[in-house]
Specification:
The protein is mainly α and 219 residues long. The protein contains 11 helices and no strands. The chain has helices at 2-35, 42-50, 57-68, 73-82, 90-114, 118-126, 131-142, 144-159, 163-168, 179-189, 192-218. The longest helix is centred in the first third of the chain and has 34 residues, at 2-35. The chain is globular, with a radius of gyration of 20 Å. This is Molybdenum transport system permease.
């Protein structure tokens, strides 16, 4: 019971943390780029970025298999480098979690960047600050509440990812079995004690994530 509980919890946390790092970097940079730019096709580009929010997990899982599967060019390229396919590994779970949580980070970061007074940014540039310094020491500090909120929501979303992960990473105990897939298999096998333990753990973690956003925003 202990190993059946700890293994998926540890894997879920590892996957969510790695996914969060990737999502935070990519989502923040994309949001910064898109926040104050207007170009042809921007609506289409943003719609594509936000699609994982509304697409069924099975569709996302299917597309991941098509793109990263063993017979795809990307899948064969990854296999040639690492001598192992990405499917049915914990990295597949990271990719799935990253895809589904990226829109939350992007949207939150974009909102924060859009609300920054442009006069403050321009003043920093006039004073001689480089674009990198403006971004690190002016833009990000001013949008930090939105960035932290997006990071927490992205982490919680990655932690609860199920459908795409099950299709793309599989459900291999001790290797790719996350808490969500472990709950599903526990119910299927009739192990309700394990299912309840995992469910309560997920509820507690998610509750703490959401309440931390409320407390942080009020500061």
């Amino acid at each position: 019971m202990t190993d059946q509980f700890l293994a998926p919890v540890q894997l879920s946390l590892k996957v969510s943390i790695v996914s969060l790092v990737i999502v935070f970097v990519i989502g923040t940079l994309l949001a910064k780029f898109m926040a104050h730019r207007h170009f042809r096709g921007k609506v289409v580009a943003e719609t594509i970025l936000l699609l994982p929010l509304v697409l069924p997990p099975t569709v996302i899982g299917f597309l991941l298999i098509v793109v990263f599967g063993n017979t795809s060019p990307v899948g064969r390229w990854i296999q040639s480098i690492f001598n192992h396919p990405v499917m049915f590994t914990w990295w597949a779970a990271v990719i799935a979690s990253t895809i589904v949580s990226l829109p939350l980070m992007y949207q939150s970061a974009k909102t924060g960047f859009s609300e920054i007074d442009r006069a403050i940014v321009e003043a920093a540039r006039v004073d001689g600050a480089s674009e990198w310094h403006v971004f690190c020491f002016v833009t990000m500090p001013l949008a930090y509440k939105s960035l932290v909120s997006g990071a927490i929501l992205s982490f919680a979303r990655a932690l609860g990812e199920f459908g795409a992960t099950l299709m793309f990473a599989g459900n291999i105990p001790g290797k790719t079995q996350t808490m969500s897939t472990a709950i599903y298999m526990s119910i299927e096998s009739g192990n309700m004690n394990l299912a309840w333990t995992l469910v309560l753990t997920m509820i507690i973690i998610s509750f703490l994530m959401l309440i931390s956003i409320s407390v942080f925003i009020k500061k």
